[in-house]
Specification:
The protein is of the alpha/beta class. The chain has helices at residues 2-8, 17-31, 49-55, 73-76, 114-124, 142-156, 169-178, 198-207, 224-238, 276-280, and strands spanning 37-43, 63-70, 83-86, 99-105, 125-136, 182-195, 245-257, 283-285, 288-290. Helix 4 (73-76) links the parallel strand 2 and strand 3. Keywords: Methyltransferase, Transferase.
């Protein structure tokens, strides 16, 4: 993945529109939290865009030291004036309880072991520390995936995975719970992008370092016949009135807290001191509450 990000470094700035949307979603989540974060880490900071955008918002007052990190030295050289690290998201070099906030914008969907990364993030956070991450969800590139699959079946008589699978929102909230995060929240932001041609879409994916990263991807590449049939199918099914094709991207924002004794906890079943009927001002009947009738 590091070599892929290095190759994409020159074109990254021209294909940053989805990451800008993800950063906007992240800052919106952060701005709603009334908390000070003395030490924050950004995983997969790319060209440092998040740090620059953060500096221009009121949320900047909530963040003390921002540490930017990435796999790619080429992209790291373009970062903002924050502290910089070159590191692997799957091997975090931070001690337990050392960070107040961890941010990730559109980088964790490419890791090999997402549950393992989330466990490392939780361990690195101090009690009552916060994680906010954005990653592509299951609706992402559904049009391209469908057309590529059908075209390859027609042309070659079989299909190999060309696009890595993306997690669904419901699966992610369960994953946050299983990896020990408290009060997890998952939001979905669907973005529809218009292109003049499917190959223009694929060029943007390469510029964003979002081309196929699967280890077991097909050995045979996308030849002319396959691309031509995929293009025909794409225009037949997903072209608008102006002859441009559409592509869907689902940006999922997930957040969760490391456990702390000050956090709200659900009451034990049967421990309530007030009856629901009393709170609603109704009489309690045989099968629950009922409105009193005259």
């Amino acid at each position: 993945m590091a070599s892929r990000r290095n190759r994409a470094a020159n074109g990254f700035a021209q294909a940053h529109f989805l990451r800008e949307r993800a950063i906007e979603d992240t800052l919106l989540t952060l701005s709603a939290i009334n908390r000070q974060f003395d030490v924050a880490l950004e995983l997969g900071s790319g060209d440092g865009r998040f740090g620059r955008e953060l500096a221009n918002t009121p949320a900047a007052a909530k963040v003390g030291l921002l540490i930017e990190s990435d796999l790619s030295p080429a992209l790291s050289a373009q970062q903002s004036g924050a502290a910089r690290l070159i590191l692997d998201e799957e091997s975090l070099p931070f001690g337990d309880d050392s960070l107040n906030l961890v941010i990730s914008t559109l980088s964790l969907h490419t890791v090999n072991d997402l549950p393992g990364v989330l466990v490392q993030i939780r361990r690195a956070l101090q009690p009552d520390g916060l994680f906010i991450g954005t990653l592509f969800g299951g609706e992402t590139l559904k049009e391209l995936r469908g057309c590529l699959m059908e075209a390859e079946i027609e042309v070659r008589g079989g299909y190999g995975p060309r696009i890595a699978p993306f997690a669904e929102g419901g699966d992610l909230i369960d994953l946050m719970k299983r990896t020990g995060f408290q009060m997890p929240v998952v939001d979905s932001d669907r973005v529809t992008v218009s292109y003049e041609h499917p190959l223009r879409l694929m060029a943007d994916l390469r510029a964003m370092a979002e081309s196929n990263i699967l280890h077991d991807r097909p050995r045979k590449g996308l030849n002319r016949a396959l691309l031509q049939r995929m293009t025909e199918l794409y225009f037949e099914r997903f072209a608008d009135d102006e002859g441009r094709i559409t592509a869907t991207f689902e940006i999922i924002t997930l957040s969760g807290w490391k456990a702390h004794e000050s956090q709200q906890k659900p009451l034990r079943p049967g421990s309530a001191k007030t009856r629901l009927a009393d709170a609603l001002g109704v009489k309690e009947g045989r099968f629950g509450t009922a409105n009193e009738r005259e």
